[in-house]
Structures are given as C-alpha cells and as structure tokens.
From TrEMBL:
SUPFAM superfamilies: Globin-like. One of its GO terms (molecular function) is oxygen binding. It comes from the Eukaryota. CDD domains: Mb-like. The gene is glob3. It comes from Drosophila kikkawai (Fruit fly). This is Uncharacterized protein glob3.
Length: 186
C-alpha cells in the first residue's frame, strides 16, 4: 500500500468512528409501522388490560345492541334456514378479542395480514364493510364511556385510528358462495 492509500484508509476508518453523524431529527410524534404513536399504543395497551376481564360482557352489550338495530345481521349466523346461535354468541366475544389481539400485535405485516384475513371472512359472509366500521365505532364509543374516568385524548386518538382500520375494509365481491349464507351484501 502506498503512503496515500494508508492515509486514506485511516481516514475512512476514522470517519466511521469520529465525528459520528448526528441522528436525523424527527419532528413531531414518532409513528410505529402501523400508524400509532408510541403513547397511543401505550394508552391502548393499558386500557385493554382494564377491558380484557370484561370482554365477554362488553362484547355482548355492544353486539346485541347492534343486532337490535341491524337485525339482518342475525341471519348471517346460519345456513339460510336455521340460526346458528352458538356462532352468533361466540361472535360477541370473538370480535372484541380480535381487537385486543390487534392492539398487542407489533409486527406491521402480521397486523395487515390479520386485517385482510378478517376482511375476507366478512366478505365471504357478505357482511358489508360499512357495518364492520359501524360495529367497531360502537365498541369504541362504549369502551370510552366505560373508561371515562381513566380516559385521555391519546387513548381516544388511538381508538379512533383503530376504527379507521375497520372503516377501510373493502367489499370483496369475488366468489360469492358463502357456505349457504345470504348471497347479497348487507
Ligand atoms: C369490528 C367489527 C368486527 C370484528 C372485529 C369481527 C371479528 C370477527 C372474527 C374474529 C370472526 C371469526 C373469524 C374466524 O373464526 O375465522 C368473525 C366472523 C364472523 N363475523 Fe365478524 N367481526 C366484526 C363485525 C361483524 C359484523 C358487523 C357482522 C354482521 C352481523 C359480523 C358477522 C360475522 C360472521 C357471520 C362471521 C362468521 C361466523 C362463523 O361462521 O364463524 N361481523 N368476525
């Protein structure tokens, strides 16, 4: 190696160590890969720890109130002639648990997969995406009311962002056979 080359390689190595480049300054809140700020996610996690033991009760309150208004929804839990009450009752818990699992999910890819998978399930059952958003909003309103004393604007923002994920569902018209369920979107 020539003198110049030695000097250059020393300089190159030195530049790795000193001066260290300053980290890029990010203005405003830092978002995770899913679109929540760290404090929103923390607020959601904390809130969910309070909600989890009551998932069934809250789920039933919200889902059955929803079905009182949107009674067509009951028929989605059956084969067109008979109602499947067990699946209907299970849904009252499953839909709340699903949101809890979403809140815990860190990986944006897994998160998106869960959302799209859930979208596909409801498209298959011909449940209109509009109503997915409505049920999510009803649950969030209910929870914010239940947590009134410990709520915060950050928690509200976090919950609203969650609702937006459900409002973005798409009606997937592909392949209409739905295990014999009603074949039109509602
Ligand atoms: C935030 C809104 C909702 C969430 C998070 C949600 C969540 C879920 C979950 C986790 C499943 C089970 C999927 C599986 O086992 O693979 C499911 C299935 C289902 N959901 Fe929803 N749901 C929502 C809204 C609705 C609405 C508004 C209706 C309309 C009545 C509905 C009807 C159904 C039906 C018919 C199934 C299939 C039941 C079965 O055969 O197991 N969902 N939903």
């Amino acid at each position: 190696m020539s003198g110049d080359e030695i000097k250059n390689s020393r300089l190159n190595r030195a530049s790795l160590i000193y001066p260290k480049p300053l980290p890029e300054i990010k203005l405003g809140p830092v978002m995770d890969g899913i679109g929540f700020t760290l404090s929103e996610r923390l607020a959601l996690r904390r809130a969910w720890n309070l909600i989890r033991p009551f998932s069934r009760r809250y789920g039933q309150d919200v889902f059955y109130t929803f079905l009182n208004k949107e009674f067509w929804g009951i028929k989605k839990f059956g084969n067109g002639t008979e109602l499947d009450l067990k699946t209907l009752h299970q849904h009252a818990l499953k839909f709340v648990r699903f949101i809890g699992v979403l809140i815990d999910e860190q990986d944006p890819i897994m998160y998106q997969l869960m959302i799209s998978d859930n979208n596909v399930t409801h498209s298959r059952c011909k449940v209109g995406s509009l109503y997915i958003g409505k049920l999510a909003k009803a649950l969030v309103d209910y929870l914010l009311h239940a947590l009134e004393k410990v709520s915060s604007p950050t928690l509200e923002r976090g919950f609203n962002k969650l609702v937006e994920k459900f409002e973005a569902y798409q009606d997937n018209q592909r392949k209409a056979s739905t295990y014999g369920r009603l074949s039109t979107f509602h």
